[in-house]
Sequence to fold (301 residues):
Amino acid sequence: MSRRTPYYLILLVLLTACGIPSARSEQSLQFHADSIPAGAQRLMEAYPEQVIGYEDNHIIFWDYTRLIYNEGKNRTTEQMHIEQDVKDIFYQDYDTTRFPPDYGYDPGRYRSAKFMDKLYGSNLNEVLMNLVKVEWCPSLGGTPVYFTKVAGAAEALKRVSDELEQHPELREWVIGAQTFCYRNIARMKRRSPHSYGIAIDLAVPRSHYWRSMYPYANEYTELTYTNTFDMRVVEIFEKHGFIWGGRWYHFDTMHFEYRPEMNPPKSDLEIVETANKPRWYPSPWLVLFTNHYMWSDASYK
Ligand SMILES: [Zn+2]
Fold:
């Protein structure tokens, strides 16, 4: 380095590169976290065309109707199956490392009926208007199924199908698919996600469902977790924004449901980018300084 290098300038540049920008970005993140709850933020990211904003404890839909986010009630898990607010969707995070699921861990099993009614249709006619046919694993002997086109659900299912078709060895796990069915959840007074065209059941005879195995159990009964489902199928669904009922203590291993707010889709590109991403990016000022003072002599001689 040259004798005439201005050291006060080095100090200034290093401060700009390391300290000041990071402190500022932390502050702005905190500001957003305080003003918009994490759950509402996830809904806006997962359903950008449907959930367009958040204001004054309400999420705002595309038609400017509003739905309260937090009613201020702390419900028990049993109560959450009867009535819910939007925040209850995020009662538990969808953590794939927490497997097999421990007592009471049912991530994504709590849903907001009002939210789903608004997105996918509040009656049979409205839901039917949104259903489209998806060719389900045709090369493996699958049959077409109906799925909602809202929020990219049918497209996501098609991507799952395309990927599963690359694995003929998984055929026995993907045939016999059942999707749309306008009904309530077994022994509950609320509509099943199958009623909205966002869920698909696979390999029913090979699957395990807690209600069938424990017909006299209630929500709080201790169960023995049972699953034989092929995890390669699960991984492909989860990559495209679906959650799996086999991650629930109240296991339903045939069941896959499009829930990008719980489990955001991951593209191949994203996976590669994350793997290659450096942990720290030098500031452009630091790059400029390094190039000018450290390497310029060597480069231009
Ligand atoms: Zn199901």
